[in-house]
Amino acid sequence: MNLISLRKSAPVRFGVLALLYSAVLLCSHWLAFQLRFDFVVPTNSHREMAVSWMWVLPLKLALLYAFGQFSGLLSYFSVPDFRRIVYATGSSSLLLYLLRSVWPGYPVSSRGVILTDFLLSTLGIAGVRLLLRVVRERRLSPEAGARRARRVGIIGAGDVGASLARELIARRGLGLQPVAFFDDDPGKWRSRVHGIPVVGAPEALRQANLNLELEEAIIAMPSASARRIGEVVRLLQSVRLKFETVPSVDELATGKVKVSRLRAVEIQDLLGREPVKLETDNIRRLLQERVVLVTGAGGSIGSELCRQIATFDPQRLLLVDQSEVQAFQIEQELIELGYAGIVLPLVADILDEPRMRYIHGRFRPAVVFHAAAHKHVPMMEGQPSEAIKNNTLGTVRLAELALEFNVDRFVMISTDKAINPTSVMGATKRLAEVFLQSLAASHPGRTRLMAVRFGNVLGSSGSVIPIFNRQIAAGGPVKVTHPEVVRYFMTIPEAAGLVLQSAAQGEGSEIFVLDMGQPVKILDLARQLIELSGLKPDEDILIEFVGLRPGEKLFEELRYKGENYAATSHPKIMRFFCQPVPLAEVQRMLGELESELHRAEPERLKLLLKKAIPEYQPYLT
Predict the structure, then answer these.
(1) Which domains does the chain possess?
(2) Which helix (H) or strand (E) holds 294?
């Protein structure tokens, strides 16, 4: 019988556990008498010691069963298990004490024996469980001893760093031996965590007399500011120490990965911001037990919206995407996360009105998040008809269907490129915003139509970071459009979370703008990526300036002239509003564009777009 895993049938496991617990409890009971009488048990107590175990043992086993100590695997032991063991043994000892008080003549052990037995049985069962856990963890590390463990320093002596150290000690097969902690908190210096000394601040690594012989460092500060992470990275680079980091706060909080799943430090760690606190009660009221539809569900933003929406217990989550591959991928991911009962992938093109009408009529979504779009700026410059068709007319058709089928809220994902646009992509998004505001003003009190603007998202498909990484992997050069170009960046989870927050507080006809922090210089971004690859900019990897591409501008803006704004209940979200254009006028402009869509040259379409959006400055050849 394998006591470490006990992966047999339930009756067999129950029997093994009963035998093991009985042995520990009998030994504890016998030893309690011996200790009570200094190992010389009086003759008149022999009968009490011999008889009492026959009903004390069943009582303790019954209480252990009641507190769930027969249902778990023996070798998986943690603080909650220890707590339940204490409850079980403590309850049995309390019952014995009460019985002794109300029935003095019955052969019940003395108070000293009861107390000693409680301590011994608690420690005995917990000790056996802990020993089996240690054996299991050693068995799960088959490589232990096969190779010398690398000496590592852990930067961050908080809960995450402590958890990491505990797991590295337990799982020796990982080949990492923690020998020192470093932490910014002086109160932790010269103390120990799991027996490992906290040497000082990370800057102590520069001290020549440290003599720790470190071979690697692990950054265990997932909640630290991006600025501090950047300082630590530069410090480790300066002392030429290899480094990795633990997963992000989002990954750890959702249980996607363990703290020991180390990875390389990424640019997201250096550009990230303080974690955003969401008003989850408002979002839950919006989504719980309702049918939610997401277009572009397989894209960067759409898929993250789906992940977060699923956690708020919707009745049904409709994953709409024209790419069956992307729809399948997000469906499988959500199934693996335990949401198989609510997700439904629907392959559909938002421009296919009969198909979208069927979906609305069949499933009756209450909330629609419209994330489907063409977003590649230079590519859309050469084929504006596709951008107009997908970004503008697709939004028009979906918004009209939302109104027709009494959808509660319709949220379009927009972009900061819609503000004073210089690209077709930005202009088509801006025209979609104008239509939504006009439609909402013409039908007050019905579907709440709104848009949410934000800038670039880190790691999204087609973004600059994957492109730079491919260029670095190829040996360079890294191609930057202009030395002064800057962009706003957000993480994908942050952007999606704030979209949900905006939807929860929207009343209709608004454009919400997310706080995107400080703009980032793309040149600095390129340099940081090269350094994170262990290379030197302009030495190992050259940086080449190639000039702005069609439709691009040096910097993005937060609002356009004539647009007013007000604060919302969330500090990271602003509400923008302006006088809506009459709906008839917008529809006329849309009709003119649609009539020319497949017969006009790109330049002609851009000029028609400018007629509809006067602030648009098109790139004309």
Answers:
(1) 10-139 (no CATH), 150-265 (3.40.50.720), 286-455+490-515+559-612 (3.40.50.720)
(2) strand 291-295
